Design the sequence.
């Protein structure tokens, strides 16, 4: 909103700041359907999505609140139904979907994936996107159930994860076909960590989720697409596992979780690329000196390649437009090879 106020209602961050790549999400909802409005007031709106989740969005609060989920008992996982992952509406029809539509704002009737791809195809490097199974699982059963049932209902949860994995693999395959000739890569969304580490153990991730992430990476590589895994928090416990299954890059490297791309480059340089790690808290400070220091320090990770400049998570409303603009100016002045920092 602050950027639109400063630069006009047609402000597009990708074009205004001459960014390098755009990630475009298809409709990944299990069921393709319009949002059902359950409640609406001047301040709140509650909708039910194609995941079967009921979500409250408040005008004065930046994050949506998940109130109910479609699966509430372990035995319900086996009967949960998915519509076809290759349904053409996922790519060629406008409409509502949870991942594109419920976030900082509530967006309805989003243009089709195909139209959004075409809008940027001639000017940007484009990535499609797909969730890995845990990112999808919690949207159906809730985070608490996902973590508890991993221990108490291991067999039935693993069977459900396998069904989700098959659905997402087929969706990725259909997306690759729909975007043929226009995509350079695929983002894999998968929040499996928080600021202090993994949400669950590395052993369980390897047993239950790693095979599905590997399938997605292998599929993309077979179609000459690079892969970037997006994971919030500090998931460094599984970085070696991601290297083993040939992931190309990792994003966003939250600085607030203790991740430092300059240090990570010493361990993973040449084996895993990184994008992110510019501390949003520094951008929020508005201090030109602090912002320049942050950008120049993180640019050390670009020596020899393998790092893409990006914030360490969403650019919040507390970041003044001129602060982000200054970060980009510093990058363009200092970020030319050979790097002199």
Sequence:
């Amino acid at each position: 909103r602050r950027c639109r106020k400063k630069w006009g209602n047609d402000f597009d961050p990708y074009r205004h700041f001459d960014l390098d790549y755009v990630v475009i999400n298809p409709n990944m909802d299990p069921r393709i359907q319009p949002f059902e409005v359950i409640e609406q007031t001047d301040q709140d709106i509650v909708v039910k999505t194609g995941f079967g989740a009921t979500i409250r969005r408040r005008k004065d609060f930046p994050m949506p609140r998940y109130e109910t989920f479609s699966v509430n008992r372990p035995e319900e996982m086996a009967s949960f139904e998915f519509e076809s992952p290759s349904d053409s509406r996922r790519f060629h029809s406008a409409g509502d979907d949870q991942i594109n539509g419920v976030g900082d704002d509530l967006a309805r009737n989003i243009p089709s994936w195909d139209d959004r791809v075409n809008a940027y195809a001639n000017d940007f490097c484009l990535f499609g996107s797909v969730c890995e199974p845990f990112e999808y699982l919690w949207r159906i059963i809730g985070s608490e159930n996902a973590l508890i049932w991993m221990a108490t209902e291991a067999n039935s949860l693993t069977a459900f994860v396998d069904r989700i994995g098959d659905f997402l693999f087929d969706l990725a395959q259909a997306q690759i076909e729909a975007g043929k000739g226009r995509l350079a890569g695929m983002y894999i969304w998968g929040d499996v960590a928080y600021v202090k580490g993994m949400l669950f153990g590395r052993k369980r991730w390897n047993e239950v989720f790693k095979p599905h992430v590997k399938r997605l990476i292998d599929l993309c590589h077979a179609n000459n697409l690079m892969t970037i895994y997006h994971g919030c928090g500090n998931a460094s416990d599984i970085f070696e596992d991601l290297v083993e299954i040939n992931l190309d890059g990792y994003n966003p490297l939250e600085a607030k979780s203790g991740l430092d791309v300059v240090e990570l480059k010493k361990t993973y340089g040449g084996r895993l690329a990184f994008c992110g790690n510019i501390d949003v808290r520094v951008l929020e400070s508005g201090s030109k000196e602090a912002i320049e220091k942050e950008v120049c320090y993180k640019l050390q990770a670009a020596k020899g390649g393998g790092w893409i400049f990006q914030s360490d998570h969403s650019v919040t409303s507390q970041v003044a437009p001129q602060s982000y603009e200054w970060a980009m100016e510093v990058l363009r002045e200092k970020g030319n090879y050979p790097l002199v920092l």
About this structure: The chain has a mean pLDDT of 97.
